[in-house]
Amino acid sequence: MDDEDSWPDFTLAEIKEMESMYKEIGEASLTQEYCKALATSFSFSASRAARPAITWLQVQSWFRDKQKKSQAKSKSSSKDLKLFIDLCGESISSNEPEMSDKPIGSRISELKELAFEARSSKDDAWYDVASFLTYRVTCAGELEVRVRFSGFNNTEDEWVNVKTAVRQRSIPLEQSECVKVNVGDLVLCYQEREDQAVYCDAHVLDIQRRVHDTEGCQCIFVVRYDHDFSEVNLQNSVIPSFPHSPLYCLCTCGCT
Question: Which fold has domain 175-251?
Fold first, then answer.
C-alpha cells in the first residue's frame, strides 16, 4: 500500500503490473520507448476511463524510484552479508580482498566449514549450528540464513537474522579463568528448564569471588536472563566458553 500512497496517479493494478515488469526486465523498463508503450496501454485501459491519461514521464519516474529503492536494499543486504562473513574473523584468509569476487553462494558454502551458534526464536536459547542451508533477503533488506541445529533434524530448521541471531561458536574456558567475568558482562548462561537445559543470554548482576578448592571454582555469580528477566545464583560453576564479542558462558552442570 505504500507505493499506492506515494504514487496516487496510478491505480493499484497498474502498480502491480509495473512491479511485475520491473522484476522481469529490470533497467530496461526505464527506456523512453518502453515507458511510452506502457503509458499508452494504461491510458486506454477500461479502468482509467474516469481518470486522467498517464504520461510516459510519470511511468519512467515510477521505475526510477523503484530502481533507487532496489539499489538501497541491495546495499543494505550486502552489508549484512559482509557482517555475516566477518563473524568468522581471521578464520577466512587475511589475503582475501575485503569485497571478494566470489559469488555469494560460493562464500556462503565456504562458511559452512566454520563453527557458529544461532539463537532459536522458539525458546531464545543458543544452539550449535550444524550447517547453513540457504539464505534470503527480507523485504526490509535484512539478511537471514536457514540453519540446522546440531543434534536436531530438519523439522527444527529455522530462519534466523544474521545480525542478531548468529555468531561464532563459544570457546571453552577453564574454571581458573572465572576472573575474566565481570559485573555488567553479557553472558551466555546455562539455564535449567522443565523439559531441558539450554543456554541463554544474560547479564551479570553481582559476583562473590571465593577461593577455589579441589572441586574447582566456588565463586557465586548472580545473573539476570535477558529473555524473561529472571535472576539466579550460580554456584560451583564451570565457565566453559565465550564468543568473540567477548561474551562468556556460565555453566552449573559441570560440563566442559
Answer: SH3 type barrels. (2.30.30)
Which are the contacts of 86, defined by CB distance < 8 A and separation ≥ 6? Answer: none
Strands lying side by side in the sheet with 231-234: 231-234, 220-225, 197-208, 186-192, 248-251, 238-241
In one-letter notation, the amino acid at residue 244 is H
For residue 160, list its beta bridge partners: 145
What would the CATH number be for the domain defined by 91-168?
A: 2.40.50.40
Q: What is the pLDDT of residues 189-200, one digit of tens each?
A: 878 888 888 888
- Which segment, 130-134, 136-140, 234-238, is predicted with the most confidence on average? 130-134
| Nearest in space to 117 (alpha carbons), one of 107, 128, 108, 125 | 128
Q: With CA atoms as reference, report the closest residue to 200 among 152, 245, 248.
A: 248
Length of the chain: 256
**Domain parsing of the chain, residue ranges:** 2-71, 91-168, 175-251
Instruction: Express each pLDDT in 62-118 by its tens digit.
Output: 888 888 887 766 555 555 555 555 544 433 333 344 444 545 555 555 554 558 899
The x, y and z cell numbers of residue 20, run together, are 511485475
Dihedral, 66, 67, 73, 76 alpha carbons, nearest 10: -150
**Those residues with Cβ within 8 angstroms of residue 252's Cβ, 6 or more apart along the chain or in another chain:** 190, 192, 234, 235, 236, 237, 238
